[in-house]
Amino acid sequence: MAAQWAISPYLDAMFRNILVVDDDEDDREFFLQTIEEVYSGMNCVTAVNGQDALDKLRDYRPDIIFLDLNMPLMNGFQFLERLKQHGDLKHTPVVILTTSSDPRSIQEAIRCGARDFITKPDTLSGWELALKKALSSR
Amino acid sequence: MITTTNELRKYHFLEGGGEMGELTRNFDWSSTPVGPVHEWPQALKASVGILLHSGFPMFLWWGEDMIQFYNDAYRPSLGREGKHPKALGQKALDCWPEIWNIIFPLITQVKTENRSFFFEDQLVPIFRNGKIEDVYWTFSYSSVIGETGNIDGVLVVCNETTKKVNSLKDIERAQVKLALSEANLRNVILQSPVAMCILKGPRYTIELANDRMFELWGKPRSEFVGKPIFDVLLDAKKEGFESLLDQVYKSGETFTASSMPVTLPRHGTTETVYVNFVYEAFREGDGTISGVVVIAVEVTEEVVSRKRLEESENKVRALVASAPFPIGVYEGREMRITMVNQAIIDVWGKGPNVIGKTYYEVLPELEEQQIYPKLDSVFTTGIPYGARNQRVDLVKGGELQPFYFNYSFTPVFDSFGKVYGVMNTAADVTDLTEAKLQVERSERNFRNMVKQAPVAMCIMIGPEHVVEVANDLFMQLWGKCEEEIMNRPVFEGISEAKEQGLEKLLAKVYAEGEPFIANEHPVELLRNGKYETIYQNFVYEPYRDADGTILGVLAISIDVTEQVNARHKIEDVVRERTESLRKSNSELSQFAYITSHDLQEPARKISTFVEMLTKSLAGQVDGRSKTYLQKIDLSARRMLNLIRDVLAFSQLSASSDQFSKVDLNLILEETKSDFELLIEEKGSIIENDRLPVIEAIPVQMNQLFTNLISNALKFTRPDTKNFLKIRSEGIEQKSIDDHGDLTTSINSCKIEFIDNGIGFNQENADQIFDIFQRLHSRSEYQGTGIGLAMCKKIAQNHGGQIFARSTPGEGATFTVVLPVSQS
Q1: Nearest-CA neighbor of B691 among B717, B727, B738?
Q2: Tally of CA atoms within 13 A in the half-sphere of B90 that contains its CB
C-alpha cells in the first residue's frame, strides 16, 4: 500500500526537514518508522516537549513541524505561542498530532497558528495515509 | 112715532127684501128728515120698492139731506165692521166723508143738471173691514124725479168689480213679466257665466248660444249661424252626442253628464276636453217640446288636475302600501281609518278589513293605555306627537301581548291649513327593546354572578377604575372592608398597591380592550396590619356594554400565594438537586472523556504494535500464533471502536454557539465519500432527494448521517442488491411546551433513510435507540451499539425526533425530523 503513495518530487523539495514534537516515545517511533519506510532521505528530528523543541530549533530549521498538544513542561499550545514570536520560524507550517478528534482542542490549536491536524492512527497504514495527507496539503 | 109692523104690513113695497128689507121696515124713519113711511111720496116708495127687490146692488140717496137706502146685493160692498148697518137712514155726508170729494160733484150734477153717469171699474176706496180699501166699481148715478117734478133722489146702481179689475191687472202684469222673462232668458243665456244654447227642431239648429258656448265648441259664431249643430261639430256627432240629444228631445227627460270627454277643435287641432253638461227639453207654452237647452261647463282643467291629484294620491297610497314600516291615516275627530298598509295591518293583527272603521273600534284595547288622548290632542292642536320604545299592549290571537314601538302621530292638514286627520307611523322595536331588556337582565345576572363567584371578582369602571362591584373574596384578597373599597378608584382604596405596575396594566386593558392574563403575579398588600406579598393568578378583561364600548375592567383573581410559596420551596430544592446533578453529570462526562481518551492510548498502541509484530515476525510464526496475533488485533480494534464511540457519545452537547447553517447535501456527499470503498465493495446504490439547508451542529450532522448510512450499508441482505433511498420533505412540526401541551408549529424537514436490508421487528423500534442495545450478535454484524443512541441524542439536541419503522426482511425506514431554524 505504501508504494501507492509514492512521494512526489514536489514534496521532496518542500519538506526535506521535519521536526516531530511528542512526549510519547511509541508515537515518535510509529512516526519515524513510517517516515523511514516511506519517505527515505528526509531529515527527521524529534523533541519530547515544547521546550525541547525550542532548544532543537536553535540549530535546526525544519520545513514542517508535527506537534503533539498534551505534553509535560511545555505543551503544544504554549509552543505555538512561542513559535509565533520567533522571527525566522513563525511561518513554518505546524500539523497537530492528536489522539482523539476533540474538536475544541483542534480549533484552539488552529486559532494559535496550526495549519492542519492528524488523529493518531491505530495502524501503520493509517499512519502512512495520514502523513501523506498532511504533507500534500500544503 | 114708531110705525108698527102691522102698519108697515100694508106697505107692500117694503115686503121681502131680505136682511135689508127687514132693517128698512123696522127703521124709525120718523126720526129722519124722510119722515114716517106713511108720509113718503110715491116716488120714494116706488124707488125703495124697486131697490129692495132688485138682485142688482142698488143705493138711493133721498131728499136734501140725502138719506140713504140700500139692498142686500149692495150689502157685501160695505164689508165687515164697516158702514153697515149704520149706513141705512144715514146722511150721505156722514156716511162717506172719505169719498165725499168724489161723489159730491157727481151727486150735485145729477140733482142740478139731471145728468146720468156711468162709470166702469172706477176706483172708489172705501172704509170697510176695519180699513180703507181700494174698491173698484162699475156704477151709474141717475136721478129720481118726485111728484113735484123736482129731482128728489139719486139712485146708484152699482157693481163692485174689484176682483175683475185685479184679475185684469194680474193678467197685465203677467204679460209684462212674460215679455220680461223672455228677454231675461235671452239675457241669461247670453250673459251666463256658463256655456248655454238653445237648439231647435229635430236637427238641433242653433237658435241661441252665448259666446262661452262658441268658445267651448272651439269655433266662431259665424260657422254655426242657422246650422244644425252636428253639421259643424262632426267629431261630437260620432261620439254619440246626437243620440243623447234625440233621447231628450223625444222623452223630455233631462240628461245630466259629469266630466264627459268630448273631442273638440282646440288651437287648430282637435283635443279631448272634459265637460259637465245638462240637456233640458225646451218646451213651448203648451208643453210641446220644440228643442233642447244645453248648459255646459268645461271642466278639463279640473278633471286633469283631479286626475293628477288622483295619480298623486295613488302614488301616496302606493308609497304607503309599499312602505316597510307601519303607516295608517285616520280622518276626522272620530279617527276613521282611510289608509293603511300591510305592515300596520300585520302589527295590529285585526285582519285586513279596517278601512272605514274608527281607530277606537279597531283597537279597543288601547282605551286604558293613554293613546287615545294623545291622538285626539294631535287632531285638535295640530301638534305632532312622537314616542320611543313605548310599550303598547295589543290583542293578538285573542291574547293581550306587550310590544314596543317607536311611533308618531302627525297631523294631516287640508289646503286651508286645517287638520283633517292624523297620520300614524310606527316602527316595531319589540325585538330590539326586548334584547335591551335582556341585556339589562344579563347585566344584573352578571353582577350577581360576580358577587357570588367562588373566585375573587370585581368590576372597575372608567379610567379611574372605580370599584363598582366586588365580591367578598376580593375584599379578603385585598384585606379591606367594603367601606374602604366600594365606589372609589381602586388605587385610592388600596393605596399600597400603587406603583407596582398594576395601574399600567389596567390602563392598557381599559384603553386597548385586550385582556391581560398574569400568572403568579406578586403584589405587596397591607393585610391584617402587615405588608404581605400576595401572588395572584389574574385576568383583566375589558368590561364592555352591549355595543362593545369599554366601560371598565373586570378583574378575576385567584390568590395562589400558598401554592407559589410552596412551589418556591420545591424549586429551591430542585435547583439544588439539579445543580448537584449537573455537577456530577459534568464530572461523569469529564470522567468518561478522560477515561476513554486515556484508554484509547494503550488500545491504539496495542493495535499498532500487533501490526508491527505481525509484520516483523512475518513467515516466522506458526498457524496458532498467527491466530492469537489476529485475535489480539481484533480485540484491540474493538476496544478502540468502543472507546471512540463512548467518547463521541459523551461529547454530544448542544450549546448554542455550535449551531450554524449546514447544507445537508454537503454532509451527505462527505459521508458518501467516507464510505466510498465500502459502497463500491458492496455495489450499493444510494439515491437521494435534494436536501435542505438547516441550522444545525455540523459535526453532529456528520455523525448522524454517518451512523444512519453506515447502518444501511451494514445490515444488508446477502442475496439482494443493497439500495438506500434518502427522501426529504418540509413539514410542520408541533412543538411541545413544558406542560406537555402543543404550542406553535415549527418549520421542519423530514428526512427518511429507506433501505432494503434485513430490517427488524417493529416491537424493537424504540429499543434500538438505547445505548449498547444490539439486535444481532457481534459475529453477525459488527458494532458497538452506540450509533443509534447517538442519532437519538443528536436529534434531541436539535429539537427534533428520530424513529424507525420496519418489518423483518423487508428493509427499514429511519425517519429524522429536524427544525429548519433553531431560533
Answers
A1: B727
A2: 14
**Residue in A102, A103, A122 nearest the CB of B608:** A122
What pLDDT was estimated at residue B127?
Answer: 76
Q: Is A46 contained in some domain?
A: yes
pLDDT in tens, B724-756: 999 999 888 776 665 656 566 788 999 999 999
Residue A1 lies in a domain: no
Number of other CB atoms surrounding residue B591 within 10 Å = 12
Q: Which helix (H) or strand (E) covers residue B67, if one does?
A: strand B67-70
CB contact under 8 A, B637 and A120: no
Peptide bond into B85 cis (omega under 30): yes
Number of domains in chain B: 6
Give B651's contacts in chain A (Cβ within 8 Å).
102-103
| Entry pTM | 0.38
Q: Find, among B544, B567, B538, the residue nearest to B455 by Cα.
A: B538
Residues B155 and B11 in one domain: yes
Cα B353-B354-B356 angle, rounded to 5 deg? 110
Q: Are residues B291 and B393 in the same domain?
A: no
**Alpha-carbon gap: A53 to the closest alpha carbon of chain B (Å):** 23
Q: What is the CA radius of gyration of chain B?
A: 73
- Within a domain: B315: no
The tally of domains found in chain A comes to: 1
What ipTM was estimated for this complex? Answer: 0.77
Structural domain range at position B286? 192-300
Residue of B nearest to A34 (CA): B612
CATH of the domain at A78: 3.40.50.2300
Using CB atoms, which residue from B611, B637, B644 is nearest to A124? Answer: B611
Are B212 and B281 contained in the same domain? yes
Q: Which domain holds residue A40?
A: 15-136
